[in-house]
């Protein structure tokens, strides 16, 4: 993509290799390639590793992982038809590396200790706030393996009610948005993983705004009013959170 492209961003050289229209058509939240690239800065992926892309949506993060890191990816999602994902995989020529499957994150068909890494982009908020979920998930990673997530979240807790400028933005499904400290505590206290990274994306809200502007430009912004709220927020509350941990060696 050229520097003048609507999705070009200097911080995401790997994502810049992919066509904007393809990314805009197939991201189910804010640019899934930016978020995956940010996560992978802290996830050491080596060729041939077995990776679960949990809640992969339209599987473009899975395709990206296969192409950029030469890993094998199980593209697992509940809402999206795996045949649709398989067609996208074949179009991009990675059918020997990406395997789409439909299923629920709470009832997975995999062998215990099968994966070297589990990544989850913009999906963990749909099931991972359950206090008991990490214990379920970690069973599918080998000891020492990696669990890495990126979620939209809060840069600080609301003082009281939903802030006025976020009232139209904040849907019922936002109640699983939390702060980085909240997530860190949720994982840390279990003793099941050793947390390597727990941080926020600098300028995360600006990236969210850039994404919404790109959707506006092509006339495909499902919630145009979000842009007004995000501009007012300017990162006071809204942003992205990253957690990367290794399963303890037991
Ligand atoms: C906002 S979309 C993000 C998809 C993709 N990662 C992306 O960023 O484009 C959330 C995804 O979570 C998946 N999801 C929600 N609940 C799930 C569950 N219980 N098990 C598996 N996937 C789930 C949905 O199928 C959906 O594709």
From TrEMBL:
It comes from the Bacteria. GO terms for biological process: methylation. The keyword Methyltransferase applies. InterPro entries: Erg6_SMT_methyltransf, Methyltransf_25, SAM-dependent_MTases_sf. Keywords: Methyltransferase, Transferase. Pfam families: Methyltransf_25. Residues 51-145 form the Methyltransferase domain. One of its GO terms (molecular function) is methyltransferase activity. Transmembrane segments: none annotated. CDD domains: AdoMet_MTases (cd02440). This is Methyltransferase domain-containing protein. It comes from Thermosipho atlanticus DSM 15807.
């Amino acid at each position: 993509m050229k520097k003048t492209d609507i999705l070009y961003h200097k911080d995401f050289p790997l994502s810049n290799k992919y066509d904007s229209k393809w990314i805009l058509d197939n991201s189910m939240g804010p640019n899934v390639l930016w978020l995956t690239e940010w996560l992978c800065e802290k996830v050491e992926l080596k060729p041939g590793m077995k990776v679960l892309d949990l809640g992969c949506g339209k599987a473009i993060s899975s395709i990206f992982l296969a192409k950029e890191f030469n890993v094998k990816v199980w593209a697992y999602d509940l809402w999206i038809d795996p045949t649709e994902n398989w067609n996208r995989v074949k179009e991009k020529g990675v059918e020997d590396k990406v395997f789409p499957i439909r299923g629920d994150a709470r009832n997975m068909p995999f062998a215990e200790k099968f994966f070297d890494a589990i990544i989850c982009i913009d999906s963990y908020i749909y099931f991972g706030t359950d206090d008991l979920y990490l214990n379920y998930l970690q069973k599918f990673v080998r000891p020492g393996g990696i669990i890495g997530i990126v979620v939209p979240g809060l840069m600080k807790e609301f003082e009281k009610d939903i802030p006025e400028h976020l009232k139209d933005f904040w849907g019922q499904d936002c109640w699983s948005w939390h702060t980085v400290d909240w997530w860190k505590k949720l994982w840390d206290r279990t003793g099941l993983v050793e947390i390597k990274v727990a941080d926020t994306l600098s300028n995360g809200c600006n990236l969210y705004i850039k994404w919404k502007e790109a959707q506006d430009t092509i006339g495909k912004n499902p919630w145009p009013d979000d842009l007004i709220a995000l501009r007012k927020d300017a990162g006071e509350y809204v942003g992205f959170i990253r957690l990367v941990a290794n399963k303890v060696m037991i």
